[in-house]
Structure formats: C-alpha cells, structure tokens
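Margin note from the TA: students keep mixing up input and output lines. Inputs are the sequences; the output is the structure of the whole complex. Example:
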Amino acid sequence: AQSVTQLDSQVPVFEEAPVELRCNYSSSVSVYLFWYVQYPNQGLQLLLKYLSGSTLVKGINGFEAEFNKSQTSFHLRKPSVHISDTAEYFCAVGGSARQLTFGSGTQLTVLP
Amino acid sequence: GAGVSQSPSNKVTEKGKDVELRCDPISGHTALYWYRQSLGQGLEFLIYFQGNSAPDKSGLPSDRFSAERTGGSVSTLTIQRTQQEDSAVYLCASSPDRRGNTIYFGEGSWLTVV
C-alpha cells in the first residue's frame, strides 16, 4: 500500500518570496513521485516527476523538488513566486500500483 | 486533439437519473484512468484501463458505477441512479506506457446532482 501526506492545506506567501510545499509518502516498494498543479476550474498539469537518477528534479515554471529517501519526502520549492503561481498543488506517488495515489493538496496563494 | 478531451465539461442532473461521461485520451496512449475529485475527499482513483480491458477497477465506489473502453481509445464512465454524493469532478487521464510513469489529465467533467 502507498500513501501521501501533504501537511499544509494552505500556504500564503508574498510575491517574490521563496516557497516550500511539503510532501511525505509511504510505500513498501520503489516509488515514482509527482507534483501536479491545478489552476482554478482546470485539470491537473504535471509540474515535475522523479522516476530514478538525480534526486533533484527540475520542472516547469521554475519549480524543483528533491527526493529524500531516508526522510520519505519529496518537497516542492520555488525560489521566487509570482501571482500566477496561485493554484492548488498535489503530490502523488506511483509504482506499487499503476494508478497514482494523491495527497490532499496544498492551496498556494501568492499575495501582492 | 493534443490533450485528453472530456465531455460534457459540466452536467447538472436530477437525482435518480443516469449519466454518461466521455473521455478521449491522447492518441496512442494505451493506459486510461478515471479519477474523482470531490470536496473534502481529494482525488480518488476509480478505474484503470490497459487497452480495452480494466485490470484494476478497485476504486469504483458502488455497482452504480461502470466504465468501458472501446477500440483502445474512447472511454465512457456511466453512473446509474445518481445520488447527491456523486456530485464531483470526474477526471480522465491517459498514459503512453503500462507503468503510468507520465499521466496526462483532462480538464474534467463537473457533475452536479440536484
């Protein structure tokens, strides 16, 4: 079985400040890890993914995430956020089953 | 089209009616998934297709829910005798590989049962 925990349901941050969205997972087998973003009234868009190799993964829109196996974490970071980054962000884990298991989501609100 | 296409984008139906939601995956994608996103429940997996067969339908919440896929392409999710708790966004996704390493989502079908 696999599960994902996103500890922060809401993260407000000022424009141009750095942000970290936390994600912890549990799985009994090797995992693939994903971050998706959902803008209002839209579907899910893949931000980045970790399948293997380098633990630091760079994605679209300046986001990056680091896979930490010992801490079972895959936190998402951006050094300087924009108003347009306001959205809901979902961490997901795959691998032991073909479907993804999603976290409950983190609403990122960027304030002017 | 270039992405996963879902229809209808919005559907309001009366309790007890049947609804059909359609998904057109990205051309050539062999794997197709249905998820449900509802308030307070997050994203729930419903069913997975590989080609026309569904090796995993463990997420379907009741026997009122069914899905099929034909020609290795279009899929239809059917909800019979809809209930208010069925109100949610139904998201379809497709993937070019069996392991689901990269899954692309559609915009969703917003279902409201009144």
